[in-house]
Amino acid sequence: MNEYEASLVIKSGAELLSSASSDPRSDEGYEAVKANLSEALERIAEALGNFEASSGTPGRSTGWVQDLRRVADDLVNR
Q1: For residues 21 and 30, is the Cβ–Cβ distance under 8 A?
Q2: By Cβ atoms counted within 10 A, which residue in 4, 23, 27, 61 is the most buried?
Q3: Among the listed residues 53, 76, 75, the one whose alpha carbon sits nearest the alpha carbon of residue 65
Q4: How many percent of the chain have pLDDT more than 90?
Q5: 3-39 burial, b if ≥16 CB within 10 A, otherwise e?
Q6: pTM score, two decimals?
């Protein structure tokens, strides 16, 4: 799987999560959901950092990486 295909999986997962959250019926607790989202955001931040590093020129991703990591930390620390 390449990065484009992986990004489609992430997009699809986000759409499914949005749909599921509008009518939550899971036995899983909100804490587990927050932990999973936090981990996903950390991995997305890592991927953005990798893209930024391979581009050779700094861009907007650096700030996004920091923001994503901050949100990921907030999710598990609240």
Answers
A1: no
A2: 61
A3: 53
A4: 47
A5: eeeeeeeeeeeeeeeeeeeeeeeeeeeeeebbeebbe
A6: 0.82
